[in-house]
Write a structure and sequence with these properties.
disordered N terminus; 16-stranded mixed beta sheet; 3-stranded mixed beta sheet; mainly beta; 417 residues; 28 strands; 8 helices; globular
């Protein structure tokens, strides 16, 4: 096994940031010294794209213009990873793009008091503010009106007409018109259709939701659609690995041990070529397990009633615990999809145990939604198993004239079915 370079010890980060004025496309640099922190939040559970939170200190006059034009102006941000031990190494671009930004702060109304008549050229009256940034191209490509009638290809042989059916995969590939590269986990259910009419939807995410909820579910476990900065994903919530051509391995094994264990105090991660996976070693103090007892007490049976009147039930037998009687949760769905109960059952079962990790020497770009995550816990072996990644936060904090990154990750245990 070969150890990957320790991100914390050998790499730091630097940032370039420009305000792009919508009036004339002029740019104003916001110096790195004025950037206080950066947080990139990838919420795979509730959102379809990353949110970047930028805390800066900007001169009031410039800041007023940034706030006034936030509906149309942009920010250009580039994030570099720098090797501190190699002075000839300029740095790899981790992120470079144009961003839509927003803030709920108002402009400053005290400029006349802050600047004397002969001090209008001053640019040192700073104000702290936080902006929320979304990648411009992702927002624009997501907001699409889709209203189509999809038919299979027709062919005539003699006096007979043949229709080649369209499949769910065919319908999903429409997403590739807006997001590429697109990684799709092989579907569990890929039914055929002679014709599919899509009513007007205004987002690509709504189009995918319509296919899953109204035609047939892609996977028994439910699905995730996430557009990261470099790839888009449609994967199940089963936690299965889906190989990506730009990644060496698609399995991450996290080993948790005692606080004083030297093996579990290793920094960074290990590339295990023999077993085709990444390994991370953590002392138990870097982790926090949380159990949710309420689902087991509140739901033991899931019943869905479809719009066509069909009833589908799923028993969650392991939820019947001591001093707990059977309880049914009824879901009324707006479609005639009979398999929707499987998605609901999976969602209820896979949120009972969560794991939070906070480690300063991990490169968060490794933790993508398509990987398989396996936990091995020597302290609490009852928590061993396969986990579903829920959230990744990259926190860049200022240290001297550079940034250091820390990674916060949340996983949910996948209950065997």
């Amino acid at each position: 096994m070969a150890q990957v370079t320790n991100i914390s010890d050998y790499y730091s980060y630097r940032v370039t940031l420009f305000f792009v004025d919508s009036e004339d496309n002029s740019t104003t640099e916001i110096a790195q010294d004025n950037i206080r922190s950066i947080l990139i939040d990838k919420n795979f559970e509730d959102l379809n794209q990353p949110v970047l939170m930028l805390s800066v200190s900007v001169d009031k006059k410039i800041l007023n213009r940034i706030i006034e034009t936030q509906e149309d102006s942009l920010m250009a941000l580039t994030l570099y990873k720098v090797n501190e031990n190699n002075p000839d190494y300029i740095g790899d671009k981790v992120l470079e793009d144009l961003f839509i930004y927003m803030t709920d702060e108002d402009i400053s109304y005290t400029n006349e008091l802050d600047y004397n008549n002969d001090e209008h050229d001053r640019n040192d009256l700073f104000r702290n503010i936080t902006f929320y940034l979304l990648k411009r191209d992702t927002v624009n490509n997501m907001n699409q009106v889709i209203n189509t009638c999809n038919r299979g290809n027709r062919s005539i042989v003699g006096d007979k007409v043949f229709i080649e059916p369209i499949t769910m995969v065919d319908l999903l590939m429409r997403v590739a018109d807006y997001f590429w590269p697109l990684l799709i986990e092989p579907l569990q259910h890929n039914p055929n259709f002679d014709q599919v009419v899509i009513p007007p939807v205004t987002k690509v995410s709504d189009y995918i939701e319509y296919l899953n909820d109204n035609l047939y579910t892609f996977y028994d476990s439910g699905y995730r659609f996430f557009v990261d900065y470099d790839s888009a994903y449609i994967v199940s919530e089963s936690g299965n690995k889906v190989e990506h051509k730009n990644e060496d391995y698609s399995t991450v094994i996290i080993e948790i041990g005692e606080l004083l264990s030297l093996d579990h105090g290793r920094q960074g991660l290990i590339v295990d070529d023999d077993n085709s996976c990444y390994r991370i070693f953590l002392p138990v103090t870097y982790t926090k397990f949380t159990k949710n007892p309420f689902t087991k007490r509140l739901v033991t049976n899931v019943t869905s009633l479809t719009s066509s009147g069909d009833v589908s039930s799923k028993n969650i037998l392991e939820n019947i615990t001591k001093n707990n009687t059977a309880k049914t949760k009824l879901f009324i769905t707006k479609s005639s999809n009979p398999n929707i109960a499987s998605n609901i059952e999976s969602g209820l079962q896979n949120r009972n145990i969560t794991l939070d990790i906070n480690k300063p020497d991990l490169d968060a770009s490794l933790f993508t939604v398509n990987k398989e995550y396996i936990i091995r816990n020597q302290v609490h072996p009852e928590y061993d198993g396969k986990y579903l990644i829920q959230n990744v936060k990259q926190v860049f904090l200022k240290q001297d004239n550079k940034f250091k990154m820390s990674t916060l990750i949340r996983f949910a245990k996948i209950e065997s079915r």
